[in-house]
Each structure stands twice: as C-alpha cells, then as structure tokens.
Specification:
Elements lengths: L4 E7 L7 H12 L3 E7 L5 H9 L6 E6 L13 E2 L1 H6 L4 E5 L2 E5 L2 H11 L9 E4 L3 H12 L4 E6 L6 H10 L2 E6 L3 H7 L2 E4 L20 E3 L8 H8 L4 E2 L1 H17 L5 H15 L2
Parallel strand pairs: 1-2, 1-3, 4-6, 7-8, 7-10, 8-9, 10-11, 11-12
Antiparallel strand pairs: 3-5, 5-6
Length: 280
C-alpha cells in the first residue's frame, strides 16, 4: 500500500453521488490506501471547505471532484487552469500539487467515451444538443476535439445561449441556438442527439415521433431509463446512458489524482452494482 491520501467530491445536493463508489473501487484495485468522501457544500461554503482541503496534511488531499453548483464557483479559487478547464470555462476536477490548485474538466473525455459507445468514431456532422449548462459546454468541447463543426442547441430559454455561442466561436464549432419547439426539425436532421438537461425537463419530447435510428446520449444515470431514452430505444436507436460519461470522467480524475492508469472496467462494474442496489 502507498502512503495514505484523500480526495473528495463537493456539491449540493451530494448524497446521491456515485463518485465515492467509483473512486474507492479504483483505489482498491490500484492498491492505494486512500479515502474518498462526499462533502455537502454550496457556493457560499466553498471557499472555506476548499482551503481546508487544500491545506490538509494528515492525510494530504490529492484533489477534488466538483458537481453542481460549484463548477464555475471554484474557478476564482484556483491558481491555474489546465487546457481542458480553460477550453470549457468550467471545472469539475481540481488537482492539488506543490501547494497550488489546478482546475481541469474531465467531462470532455467522458463525453468522448459516450461518442465511442454510441458508435460515433469520427466527428458528428450535425449534433442536436438539449440544454445549455456546464455539461453542454463539455459536449461542445468534445465535438471540437473530434473535428465536428455544427451543433444545434435546443434551450427552454434561448436567450440564455450566449455562452454556448461564444464557446462555439472559440472552439471553431458553428452553434445555433433554437427553442425547444424546433425539436422535431432539429432532431430529424441530426446524426446524434445529446441530452444534458435535468431529470424530467424535456420529457415532453418523448411524446413526439422520435427520429428512427439516430444515436442518443443522455447524461442522466438515475432514474434510468429516462423517457427520452425509452423513446429513442423504441425507435431503434443506440442509447448511451449517463453512467458511461460519469465513469469516463471519473477515470480521468483518478489518473490525474494518482498518476496511475485508472481501472475503468472495475469502476464501471462498481457503478452498475451500486445503481442496481438502489433500484435505478
């Protein structure tokens, strides 16, 4: 066993998080005497919690995972941004090293793994994106990483799509912001659909005729399957659930924190077992 260290996931609410299950499974497989905890923390409490973990010595903290609502709030607390964090503009991973704190975004690699599982090996010619938050930004970065150039984002409030437009210009992706009412046209013309909205937010779209055979990725993993996942499967589409993205991004976090290759298959099996135990 290596010297004991710790890591943690911060967010609010945090009780549902599978991150402890995934990271602990990885540490055990890697032979690391490390701990990983879930800490309830909102934006107001973040600076104090962040400092206490950054400065912890017994045991030292290797880094953090961040979920809502902290992915933007953590940025001012960092010493620097890795290219992934700089490209996306939000951070889901912090690495503590040499007294400093570096912000990364591993959601991009998680989405790239979803693309692979959906059978998309190259760049999507036309991606339909549901939602415009931090995860949607990671999707755009994944599209850009594959060389994709077109994304049409469907938002409940199109006026909130400014940040996606700016990110698209910076990454070289042509982004069009449209209202949810344009979904039939947009989904029918896409070669892949990615949903990044909260649970239930776009369930009404499942009542429409779902485009046949278009791969569908949903970043949600519980409850599962979502209404859109069922509609897509019924239409003969390949469906990729959020557990793939969750494990993919967590595996990169493990590698950043430990410096060791992550046991992806072990982590995915642990996540599937935990969801089965919850009945999700």
């Amino acid at each position: 066993m290596s010297a004991s260290r710790r890591a943690a996931v911060l967010g609010a609410p945090i009780g549902h998080s599978l991150s402890p299950v995934l990271h602990r499974a990885a540490y055990q497989a890697l032979g690391l005497d490390w701990s990983y905890e879930a800490i309830e923390c909102d934006e107001g409490g973040l600076p104090a919690v962040f400092r206490s973990l950054r400065d912890a010595l017994d045991p030292p903290c290797a880094g953090l995972s961040l979920t809502m609502p902290l992915k933007s709030a953590v940025v001012p607390l960092l010493d620097d941004l890795a290219p992934s964090g700089r490209d996306v503009g939000v951070v889901n991973t912090v690495v503590f090293a040499d007294g400093g704190a570096i912000g990364h975004n591993t959601d991009v690699q998680g989405m790239l793994r979803c693309f692979d599982d959906a059978g998309l090996r190259g760049a999507p010619e036309s991606l339909a994106l549901l939602g415009g938050g931090g995860t949607a930004r990671a999707v755009l970065a994944a599209v850009a990483a594959r060389g994709g150039v077109v994304a049409r984002a469907l938002l409940r409030d199109p006026s909130r799509g400014t940040s996606l437009l700016e990110l698209g210009r910076r990454l070289g992706v042509d982004v069009e912001i449209l209202p949810l009412g344009a979904a039939p046209e947009v989904l029918g013309a896409a070669d892949i659909v990615v949903n990044t909205t909260p649970a239930g937010a776009v369930d009404a779209l499942a009542l429409a005729v779902w485009p046949r055979g278009i791969p569908y990725i949903d970043v949600l993993y519980a409850p599962w399957p979502t209404a859109l996942a069922v509609a897509a499967a019924d239409a003969g589409s390949v469906v990729v659930g959020g557990l793939v993205m969750l494990v993919g991004q967590a595996a990169v976090q493990v590698e950043l924190h430990t410096g060791m290759p992550a046991p992806y298959d072990v982590m995915r099996a642990a996540g599937e077992a935990a969801l089965a135990a919850r009945g999700s």
